[in-house]
Amino acid sequence: MHLLNLNQADLSDIRLIASDVDGTLTQNGKFVPNFIHTLLDLQSAGIKVFLVTGRSAGWVSALVNYLPITAAIAENGGLYLQLDSKQDLLSNIPNINEHRLLLENAFCQIQNRFPSLKISSDNQFRITDWTFDVDDLSADDISAIAGKCCEMGLGFTYSTVQCHIKLAHQDKAIGLTKVLERYFPEFNQDQVLTVGDSPNDEAMFDPDKFPMSVGVVNILHYQDKMTHLPKYVTQASEFLGFAELAKLLL
């Protein structure tokens, strides 16, 4: 699939950016000085920014309170968080404790086959999914783990940093759609721009759900592993690619 250069995009209708964090808003794993300035510039221009990340509810609840953003969706569509400490569970989980045990047992079964797997450092702050580090897992390993999760009736996705065991119908696009319908009905699809860099952003690249999407150029590392790719791609990678997008919007 041929990806269009971002300079070809008409961004005049965009009023809300739904962006991944790791590898999209970070540079070499960190927020850089220009990051806050870019968010403030977008805010001043009346463009809302949502974080839509695979990171844990615990980590994201801190980010949403400290960054100049409108809201955030954590755990790949599992939970919605706002500045006023409002939280909304987006996944259908009747009993959180039972759900956590289910995910832990699933991880243990996978770990029996891959003993070197390490639980992610933020897993203790999670509610809706269970994560372990990507490390040096090969494409075949990832495929085998995804297949095992499917056998157990669970979903699976991965990013540049983590693998996620989750409910089968939990992803960023489903979570974002629910949030827009419940809290921001004034926005239509053409006013929302989704941004990401890895396979766990793929659902947000589905043109039937979000026709306007951008991948920072590091998305090209995964293009042969994804069904849905972004409509446009930046020239720069990671946050520098997002800054390139912000400059065009402003």
List the helices and strands and how they pair.
Layout: E1 4-5, E2 16-19, H1 33-44, E3 48-52, H2 57-66, E4 71-74, E5 79-82, E6 87-89, H3 96-113, E7 130-133, H4 139-151, E8 154-158, E9 162-167, H5 172-183, E10 192-196, E11 213-215, E12 232-233, H6 238-249
Parallel strand pairs: 1-12, 2-3, 2-10, 3-4, 10-11, 11-12
Antiparallel strand pairs: 4-5, 5-6, 7-9, 8-9
Give a verbal description of the structure.
The protein has 250 residues and is an alpha/beta fold. It folds into 2 domains: 167 residues, 3-Layer(aba) Sandwich (Rossmann fold), CATH 3.40.50; 72 residues, Alpha-Beta Complex (Hypothetical Protein Ta0175, Chain: A, domain 2). Helix content is 31%, strand content 19%. A 9-stranded mixed beta sheet has the order 1-12-11-10-2-3-4-5-6, sandwiched between helices. Helix 1 links the parallel strand 2 and strand 3. Helix 1 packs parallel to helix 6.
User: What's the name of the CATH homologous superfamily of the largest domain?
Assistant: HAD superfamily/HAD-like
The computed structural class is alpha/beta
* Helix-strand topology string: EEHEHEEEHEHEEHEEEH
The percentage of residues in β strands lies in: 15-25%
Q: Indicate the CATH topology of the largest domain.
A: Rossmann fold
Low-pLDDT runs:
none
The radius of gyration computed from the alpha-carbon positions, rounded to a whole number of angstroms, is 17 Å
Describe the structure using short key phrases.
alpha/beta; Rossmann fold; Hypothetical Protein Ta0175, Chain: A, domain 2; 2 domains; 9-stranded mixed sheet; 3-stranded antiparallel sheet; 6 helices; 31% helix; globular
